[in-house]
Amino acid sequence: MEKKLGKRCALLAIAAIALALSACRGTKQSEADAEKEAFADLRAEITSLVPEVDRRDQALATVDDLEVLLNKLDRDVQDRAEQFRLLNANYDAMRADLEAGVAAVERQMQSNFGQLSAQYRKLSQELTTEEWESLDKAKSKAMETAVAGLLDRNSGESQ
Predict the structure, then answer these.
(1) In this structure, what DSSP letter does residue 85 have?
(2) What domain count does the chain have?
(3) 112 confidence band (pLDDT: 50, 70, 90)
(4) Domain containing 92: what range?
(5) 35-53 residues labelled b (16+ CB within 10 A) or e (exposed)
(6) Is residue 9 part of a domain?
(7) Helix count (H) and strand count (E) of the chain?
(8) What is the pLDDT of residues 131-143, one digit of tens each?
């Protein structure tokens, strides 16, 4: 139980940091454009840092997979939000329905987090330590921008 609570706290902390970062953004650039630009910057940085074509192509493919997973996560969150909105609007809904929905969301979040973590680890293994450390700023910007955009689009305030 403590392990599960610890994971939830960690996810909430990441979400809070990303939300704070998104509030500090001062540009008029759309969230989608900012995400595309951040991932393009990460790809450009990998292209310039990794001299071997095979390793570079593997790393770029992993970045593509990360971006696809983040987009899938965004769609999943939007779908779940709509399901909860409909469930909440249904006055005849049973508590069991709500609890089942919450459990499904938790399972989906754990699955998505596991997939994202695996891809991120894969990227770190495809690069040398020096390359990985050199990518720090581009990695951070890409991930922070993607998470902030996801939170902005799904917070309910932007709707």
Answers:
(1) H
(2) 1
(3) confident
(4) 2-23+32-154
(5) beebbebbbebbeebbeee
(6) yes
(7) 6, 0
(8) 888 887 777 777 7
